[in-house]
Amino acid sequence: MPKTPVTVIGLGPMGATMAATFLEHGHPTTVWNRTAAKAAPLVEKGATLAATPAEALAASELVVISQTDYTAMYDSLKDSTHALKGRVLANLSSGSPDELRRAGDWASGHGAELLTGGIMVPPPGIGKPGSYVFYSGQEKTLDAHRETLRALGDITFVGTDVGLAMLYYQAQLYLFWSTTTAYMHALALVGSAGVSGEQFRPFGTALVSALAGDGPMGYLRIITEEVDSGLSPGADNTLRMQAVGAGHVVEAGQEAGIDTTGPTALKDLFWRAVDMGHGDGGLSSVFEAIRAPAT
User: Fold this and answer.
1) 135: closest CA among 174, 163, 101?
2) Do the beta carbons of residue 21 and residue 152 sit within 8 Å?
3) DSSP letters for 56-76
4) How far is the C-alpha of 107 from the C-alpha of 105, rounded, in Å?
5) Whole-prediction pTM value?
6) Can you tell me the distance from the alpha carbon of 196 to that of 190, in angstroms, rounded to the nearest whole number?
7) Are 91 and 115 in contact (CB under 8 A)?
8) CA nearest 237: which of 245, 229, 249?
9) Beta strand extents in the chain (DSSP E only)
10) Under DSSP, is residue 46 helix (H, G, I), strand (E, B) or coil?
11) Do the bridges between strand 6-9 and strand 48-49 make them parallel or antiparallel, or are there none, so unpaired?
């Protein structure tokens, strides 16, 4: 049976790969980009280049948007809002949750419906095994276009609040960036003594794997349980002890001559939780300082 048509607005690395993926799955694909020349490789693959945003909107009920931010969407469509009526805008651009909520109001004000999404892979991973996308908005709308959008990756619906997809997306990004940056700091720390990255990597791999596991070092599980329960027993490994240890990590970095911005921020966060009265609790007590930021 004929595949559902789709329009892609924004042909940066993400958008261009999305459009190519839709084409590979047999969907008639219309594209538009502020710099039209970027569409040439896609046109060679069978895409239709729209001359204007209004023409792009008219081509498909489902319009996938992948731009730098939501401001780019407004700038691109400001002269074509008359063509938004009846369209489903699946915007996979980055922004803040409240920004997405305002965009939902903007879309509905022009007779369109907004689905927000956070795609959790870089461009080469789009549509490949392991690719997944957080979506929020009206689930019935997502269901109507689920088969088309599945080409980009597995679909995880997180709720009707259009800001939720970006909360999940930003949370995952922060977890990724902070973990990988901490690993780079670790490599710099041991590297100051001539230890190669490959010598240290097995220990980093073992630790990260253990944190995600169900064993006694499965701290993602442990912290989740303690945060959800509101209980953080310190026992023989109190937060105060770990705050002292965090100070030693800073000192080691200073002695090694490497940047200590990250470890210092971590140490300060630990001590702020201690000063709030959580020194005898466990590591998960830091959550109280995180959700009650310093003024």
Assistant:
1) 163
2) yes
3) HHHH-SEEEE--SSHHHHHHH
4) 5
5) 0.91
6) 8
7) yes
8) 245
9) 6-9, 29-32, 48-49, 62-65, 88-91, 113-119, 132-136, 154-159
10) coil
11) unpaired
CB 170 within 8 A of CB 192: no
Residue 187 carries which side chain, given as an amino acid letter? L
Task: Evaluate whether 60 touches 9 at the Cβ level (below 8 Å).
Answer: no
DSSP label at residue 228: H
- Burial readout 77-108 (b: 16 or more C-beta within 10 A, e: otherwise): beebbebbeebbbbbbbbbebebbbebbebbe
Compute the half-sphere exposure of residue 164: CA atoms within 13 Å on the CB side of its CA. Answer: 14
C-alpha separations of 39 from 30, 48, 73, 74, 149 in Å: 10, 9, 18, 21, 21
Give Cβ neighbours of residue 94 (< 8 Å, ≥ 6 apart): 68, 69, 118, 166, 169
Residue 184, SS3 per DSSP: helix
Local confidence pLDDT in tens for the 295 residues of the chain? 789 999 999 999 999 999 999 999 999 999 999 999 999 999 999 999 999 999 999 999 999 999 999 999 999 999 999 999 999 999 999 999 999 999 999 999 999 999 999 999 999 999 999 999 999 999 999 999 999 999 999 999 999 999 999 999 999 999 999 999 999 999 999 999 999 999 999 999 999 999 999 888 899 999 999 999 999 998 888 999 999 999 999 999 999 999 999 999 999 999 999 999 999 999 999 999 999 877 6
* Tokens describing residue 151: 């080409």
Domains of the chain: 6-161 (3.40.50.720), 169-290 (1.10.1040.10)
236, HSE (Cβ side, Cα atoms, 13 Å): 0
**Ramachandran region, residue 96 (left: φ > 0; alpha: ψ -120 to 50; beta: rest):** beta
Residue 1 structure tokens: 């049976």
